[in-house]
Write a structure and sequence with these properties.
Length: about 650
């Protein structure tokens, strides 16, 4: 065989870890693993950087996926030295949030959870929902990871403690009590003479409830109920009775897992390959309050590193820190002390990290593990269901791609102005709202849905053709053959026809088969695809049709909402812009103070003068603009 008959295969160069290790120090800090494109794919921390990194490349017969993968994907390891492991822990969390490496723990719900705030120093304290805690000496309760739990708490507070719910600006500007007063959920301090001592007592009772001291509160209310009954104040006694019943129901739903009145977080851990579920069970004052599972994908690194990274991201994101954190495994050497010190600083009191071996604490961790395993199986079943639905949709619509990434577009206009469009994105059947886009037509100025759709798609898909955005697997347009034709034309012009599938979804039509109302029927919704004359009718109530309808309806909702917002702003702006002496800054002041154009029109000169930054001359000009007849009469009066 001649040399010309053979083709030499180029062997990819493996990462030279020995050379990399030579310059990595024996110091605490963070290490950043980068691929051949310079992208950070993993960030870790260590008490000893050299020893930690060396462990990844030791030939110990380790069969874990990441050990075999690293030499093929790594190109460089960068290190950042810190003074101690606690600083490395904080830095790791900061770097993970900034760079979002592929193989690190990235919580999809990494956000500031809602908390409840009561400012006891305000005139009439209220319970308000906030996302961030400020250093303002107010009392904060939460954060609540469950919206349902927070709504249940707010419902009890509003119904039985009767604290105001309105903002300070509304409180100071009301002239009559609102609906909350009418339904006996607020005493009406905005306009009525309310007993401050009684209101203050309600605030204290609400704080007891939010602090989880339900038993103490029930005893206190029971004593008040008996006193009110003895003094023949039966209506007040009935009010206390209702409070007691409501609070007792909340307490009954919380399972007592320990006789100790202590706050604990217990973690469970379950893994199959690179798919991991971390389970959190929260215990507050000895009662099990809730559980939440965190599915993590592409987790190729060791269990202890995944758990450590999860704890760092979770607790440094504004979550409530308990007195004890129960873990299913020991952390690496030095990390235990670093985490304990960091959490204690964040909580401003001592926090214990424990790996229980027996007793009720071990039972709680075991329960968390069982829940983690169940959550994994549920997620696995859901993924299989989604994959099955995608395969059916691909088969029935003859799609080239598996439709994991779907984009839908819709046009909204009213008498030609303004003309807007929407782009919604669904990934794995779920809306990806961060990828939503809204468009105002620039070239199309008259009512022309086809031309508007052509402009919208051209603007969106040009970025795909230029490599600036990811290409969707499937485009869905709202409409029939005409809208589909516009989408196909744009894809052909940009050379994307072979890359992206496209269909249109036409709404059902009304068919009259007789002269009576009973003879009116509706045709099924139809799907048009390129190159096929007749539409495809998917089985009604099928999951495939339901997905397309959801995507289409969401695009319609976003377009309509955007259109209404523009029309509202346009109407308000045009009315105020015509007022002499009213510019952009004054317009903002007016709207912030009054809240709406209707209230501005109804205000008299003295009320307008109360707006900060508006003098008498401007106030008269505003009043005169909206009340020309009244102003003329006033000027003509002797």
């Amino acid at each position: 065989m001649s040399n010309t008959d053979t083709t030499a295969k180029k062997v990819p160069k493996l990462f030279d870890h020995k050379s990399a290790l030579e310059i990595i120090p024996h110091e605490p800090g963070c290490y950043l693993m980068k691929d051949k494109q310079g992208r950070i794919i993993y960030i870790g921390k260590a008490k000893d950087l050299k020893n930690r990194v060396r462990n990844y490349f030791q030939k110990s017969g380790d069969s874990r996926a990441f050990v075999k993968m690293l030499p093929h994907v790594l190109h460089e390891i960068e290190t950042i030295i810190t003074r101690n492991e606690k600083e490395a822990l904080i830095l790791e969390n900061t770097l993970i949030k900034r760079h979002k490496p592929r193989y690190n723990v990235l919580l999809k719900d990494d956000k500031y959870y809602a908390s409840l705030r009561i400012d006891t120093k305000s005139d009439w304290p209220r319970v308000e929902v906030v996302r961030r805690k400020a250093n303002d000496n107010a009392k904060y309760f939460g954060p609540y990871s469950s919206g349902g739990a927070m709504r249940q708490t707010l419902n009890v507070l509003n119904r039985h403690f009767q604290l105001r719910t309105c903002s300070d600006s509304v409180l100071n500007n009301r002239t009559r009590p609102c609906l909350q007063y009418q339904i006996k959920r607020c005493p009406g301090p905005c306009v009525l003479d309310v007993d401050e001592a009684l209101y203050s007592q309600h605030v204290k009772d609400a704080i007891l409830f939010l602090e989880g001291k339900g038993t103490e509160l029930v005893e206190k209310l029971t004593s008040k109920m008996l006193v009110a009954s003895d003094e023949l104040e039966f209506e007040l006694a009935a009010h206390y009775r209702d409070q007691i019943e409501s609070i007792s129901k909340v307490l009954e739903t919380q399972k007592v897992v320990t006789t100790e009145e202590i706050d604990r977080d217990a973690f469970g851990f379950y893994r199959e390959g690179e798919h991991v579920v971390v389970q959190l069970m929260t215990v507050r004052r000895g009662r099990l309050e809730g559980a939440k599972s965190f599915p993590l994908q592409d987790q190729a690194f060791p269990d202890v590193e995944i758990l450590s990274s999860f704890l760092s991201v979770y607790y440094q994101s504004g979550r409530l820190i308990p007195d004890e954190v129960l873990l299913p495994m020991e952390l690496d050497e030095g990390e235990h002390e670093a985490f304990t010190e960091l959490l204690s600083e964040l909580k401003e009191s001592k926090v214990k990290l424990l790996v229980p071996k027996r007793g009720t604490k071990k039972a709680l961790v075991d329960t968390a593990h069982v829940n983690a395993e169940q959550a994994f199986k549920t997620k696995h079943d859901e993924d299989e269901r989604i994959e099955d639905m995608m395969e059916k949709l691909q088969q029935k619509l003859s799609l080239t791609n598996m439709p994991n990434h779907i984009e839908c577009y819709d046009i909204s206009n009213f008498q030609g102005d303004p003309i807007v469009g929407s782009q919604v994105v669904f990934k794995d059947t779920k809306p990806s709202k961060k990828d939503y886009r809204r468009f105002k037509m620039k070239e199309v100025t008259s009512q022309n849905d086809f031309a508007s759709m052509h402009e919208l798609l051209t603007r969106r898909l040009t970025k795909v053709a230029n490599g600036e955005d990811d290409a969707p697997d499937l485009i869905v347009v709202d409409g029939g053959k005409g809208q589909l034709g516009q989408a196909v034309a744009v894809l052909d012009d940009l050379g994307l026809s072979s890359v992206i599938d496209v269909v249109s979804l036409a709404k059902s039509r009304v068919d009259k088969v007789g002269f009576q109302d009973a003879d009116v029927t509706r045709s099924p919704e139809r799907v048009f695809i390129p190159g096929r004359k007749n539409p495809i009718v998917l089985k009604q109530n099928s999951s495939e049709l339901y997905l397309l309808q959801r995507v289409r309806d969401e695009a319609h909702r976003v377009a309509i909402t955007f259109h209404k917002q523009l029309r509202s702003k346009q109407a308000m702006r045009s009315s105020l812009d015509d007022v002499p002496g009213v510019g952009k800054h004054t317009r903002k002041l007016l709207l912030k103070h009054f809240g709406s154009l209707k209230k501005i029109k109804a205000a008299n000169i003295d009320e307008i003068k109360q707006v900060t930054g508006i003098g008498e001359k401007t106030a008269k000009a505003i009043f005169a603009y909206f009340h020309p007849t009244t102003t003329t009469i006033q000027e003509e009066s002797p």
